[in-house]
UniProtKB/TrEMBL annotation:
GO molecular function, one term: protein dimerization activity
Protein name: HAT C-terminal dimerisation domain-containing protein
Domain of life where this protein originates: Eukaryota
Organism per entry: Hibiscus trionum
PANTHER family: GENERAL TRANSCRIPTION FACTOR 2-RELATED ZINC FINGER PROTEIN (PTHR11697), TTF-TYPE DOMAIN-CONTAINING PROTEIN (PTHR11697:SF231)
Pfam families, per database record: Dimer_Tnp_hAT
Phylogenetic classification of the source organism: Eukaryota, Viridiplantae, Streptophyta, Embryophyta, Tracheophyta
């Protein structure tokens, strides 16, 4: 892909229709074949490879919350390992790539000079290696780690811990009523009256024997547990336990449907978008978000219903 892109740019440089096209292609080719671009390209590839599994999993329509929590620690440890031990391997790969396409590599021990001349406050003892390793390599990885820590901070992890405590597979092995009640009081105080908080503990103590039932042991997810409580009418016997389970199911950990839907808005933000009414735009967005339901409707039946409304 890299070689093909370079070849296209060289063709435009030689045969571009206008001088502006040729100049833009020349500038793009110069940037593309620079050491800094190749270095960042390889670094970004490694970082994205590490975070890809977490990103893809969190974008699934239905994601087990417990697995989501477990997936967070893996990218963090791999990114930290890359920061601590990955510099030398990355440089070797960058050198090999540059040699294969004849990109000159500067001496990393040479003094680094900012691209647009020596910066006013730049220290003379800064080398190219220092710039690439400290200013780019470490900074990029630290930024990614900070993003993960911000998204999955202690508050979030505690909330996910509450979720995992109600996961049927985890409940088979352990069942800490104290932890559940404490976390529930912390995160859902407005959903339970004070007397319900006291009743909740007792309901969980009675619920403890339920997890010993054979049919309970066949449950695998919190969603299964919620459905089973309704099916067996135990949601009526343990209404507060059922309320906690339903609250946990509303956690926005699993799906990126809404995020993807708003990303679609960028595609239609044009002249047509500016001329349509908000109600029509809202209806279009609703159809996109609920496209699985929309696909079950027959177009002819919609037309007939519309005609009936007109009559």
């Amino acid at each position: 892909m890299f070689s093909a892109t370079c070849e296209v740019l060289l063709n435009i440089i030689d045969d571009g229709a206008t001088s502006a096209q040729r100049a833009e292609a020349d500038a793009a080719y110069e940037a593309l074949t620079s050491l800094v671009f190749v270095f960042i390209l390889h670094l970004m590839r490694k970082v994205l490879e590490i975070s890809d599994m977490l990103c893809q999993t969190l974008q699934q329509q239905s994601q087990d919350i417990l697995n989501a929590m477990h997936l967070v620690s893996s990218p963090k440890s791999l990114l930290q390992k890359l920061r601590d031990e990955g510099w030398n391997d990355l440089i070797v790969k960058v050198r090999s790539f540059c040699d294969s396409i004849n990109i000159p590599i500067s001496d990393l021990n040479a003094h680094y000079v900012a691209r647009k001349g020596r910066a006013r406050h730049q220290h003379d003892d800064i080398t190219l290696e220092h710039h690439y390793k400290i200013d780019i390599f470490n900074t990029m990885i630290d930024t990614q780690l900070q993003e993960l820590n911000d998204k999955f901070n202690d508050h979030t992890i505690e909330l996910l811990t509450l979720s995992s405590a109600l996961d049927p597979k985890e409940m088979h092995a352990s069942f800490s009523i104290d932890d559940i009640c404490q976390l529930n009081h912390k995160f859902y105080p407005s959903d339970f009256a004070e007397h319900e908080m006291m009743q909740l503990r007792m309901q969980f103590e009675h619920f403890d024997h339920v997890r010993q039932l054979l049919e309970f042991k066949s449950l695998e997810t919190i969603s299964d547990l919620c459905q089973w409580l309704v099916k067996t009418r135990k949601s009526e016997i343990y209404p507060l336990v059922y309320r906690v389970v339903t609250l946990i199911l509303t956690l926005p950990v699993s799906t990126a449907t809404t995020e993807r839907s708003f990303s679609v808005m960028n595609i239609i933000k044009n002249k047509f978008r500016n001329n349509i009414e908000d109600e029509f735009l809202s209806n279009c967005l609703l159809l996109y978000i609920e496209k699985e339901i929309a696909e079950t409707f027959d177009v002819d039946s919609i037309i007939n219903d519309f005609c009936d409304m007109k009559e």
